[in-house]
Amino acid sequence: MDRRVFLQTLSAVALSQLLGACQQNNRSSLGINCLQKTLPPPLIGKFRSESQVSLQMTFQSSPQEIFSQLERWHEETQSLTSKDSNETVSESMPPARLASLGDYWLTQAIQKELIQPINVEALSRWPALDPKWQQLVRRDRKGNPSQDGEVWGAPYRWGATLIVYRPDKFQKLGWQPQDWSDLWRPELQGRISLLNQPREIIGLTLKKLKQSYNKENLESLSELPEELNRLHRQVLFYDSTHYLEPLILEDTWAAVGWSSDILPALAQEPDLAAVLPISGTALWADLWVQPQISQSETSNRWIDFWWEEAIANNLSEFSAAISPLLSQALSDKSKSQLLMVDPDRYKRSEFLLPLSAKTLGQYQNLW
Q1: What is the pTM of this model?
Q2: Helix, strand, or coil here: 54?
Q3: pLDDT tens digit string along 243-252?
Q4: What integer pLDDT is reported at residue 160 of this predicted model?
Q5: Where are the alpha helices (DSSP H) in the chain?
Q6: Residue 285: alpha-carbon gap to chain centroid
């Protein structure tokens, strides 16, 4: 699917949805709950036409809303399974469902029993995933990473924390941001904004100190508090939502943010540029997860669809994220190629994994 065909397909999506409504009686049903503007509409239409599945798409504006929907589905399931034993559960169960959940929320979803393990033996392309992705979703029943754990999600897209900046301001300085350590340069005092996220900001400071984002016992690093104080003196403000607007208005010169926000902004704002830091960064992944009593052949077909080679390539080309199964180089016009600029930087990057209660307390004290 090239760019011309991709855009032409948009006009056919609405028609396919109308036709799908007429054929629902002859189709399997599948409910999908995911974030807005994350799945290219032509690819959704392609699944509909090829699978003959009646899709019920629900789009949310934030990960918190998706998590809240999982909680509501869990309550609904609990209510149905607690009914009179004379009524068979299968007769009252809702249709198959899947939700898109960020890996950051996975531990909590497992602990609250909102989701169930996925039967990867029923997924044809699971073996094609790099072990790094397979291990991300292998967890024990407490949500902790485990080599022998069950598989609780199917990764289908990923992104990273980036530095976004104004090249015109740095041209005057004679250098361009390349790594986290650049945020500490005196020229940037009062000129940067940071995410209001302890794991992200303390984590990038750990990277500057050649440590892991997931390091336990922060008190063992005597230099960490002073490094954070020095960084704090550089910051104009902290915000996890509106950090791009001041950059566009030239109130700041650089910001730390997520690729899912930054890549679309780069396509609209020619005065901005971004970089994945040399020493590595924090990675995030969106996963397909299955609510309790919801696994089906239909949901397996949906997961496998996003792992098909052509679909994975198109998802990476036409959205603000990368498929873990991307098999070809992205075009020069694709902003997502920024995430693949250097394989070594990717290898040095990490997912934010669960930490012990003691270490989380240290994070809060430092923050």
Answers
A1: 0.87
A2: strand
A3: 999 999 999 9
A4: 97
A5: 3-22, 41-51, 63-81, 89-92, 106-111, 131-136, 167-173, 198-208, 224-232, 245-248, 259-268, 297-307, 309-318, 343-347, 357-366
A6: 4
